[in-house]
Design goal:
There is one protein chain. This protein has 4 helices and 4 strands, in the order E-H-H-E-E-H-H-E. By secondary structure, it is of the alpha+beta class. It has one domain. The strands form 2 sheets. Strands 1-4 form a two-stranded antiparallel ribbon. The structure holds iron/sulfur cluster.
Length: 125
């Protein structure tokens, strides 16, 4: 997605335009869920076996990524603008941000999303 693209989803109370803050990849206490398909895609992208990706980047629970420095996502790269180092194959949960169904039923999560992400703008504004 380009920085300028504004994304809308039916039923969501906000629009989204990524500002590349990296905030969504570094939420304190946050975690990134991965599916088997996500792991397979990451492995192909990195030229690693799925077992090696799981060993190096996936928590023992098998369904969340390990943390990198300071609790940030292990794939969040340094730079002037935050960048996902596996952007073309980032997990489905990351591709769907911030349009998670849970946001519609969890007021605290919605507040967290709106406070954390400078690219989220309420429809009410
Ligand atoms: S995988 Fe990429 S997009 Fe997803 S949280 Fe990590 S750095 Fe961000």
């Amino acid at each position: 997605m380009s920085d300028a693209e504004v994304v809308r989803r039916e039923g969501f109370p906000f629009v989204f335009s990524c500002k590349r803050s990296g905030n969504c990849c570094a939420i304190p206490g946050g975690f990134v869920r991965v599916t088997p398909a996500d792991v397979a895609g990451i492995a192909a992208h990195l030229g690693m076996s799925e077992a090696a990706v799981r060993s190096r980047f996936v928590q023992p629970d098998g369904v969340t990524l390990k943390d990198g420095l300071g609790g940030r996502c292990v794939f969040l790269a340094e730079g002037r603008l935050a960048a996902c180092s596996i952007y073309p194959v980032r997990p489905a949960k990351c591709r769907e941000w911030p349009f998670w169904p849970e946001v519609l039923v969890d007021a605290r999560l919605r507040e967290l999303v709106e406070r954390t992400c400078p690219g989220v703008v309420s429809n009410a504004q």
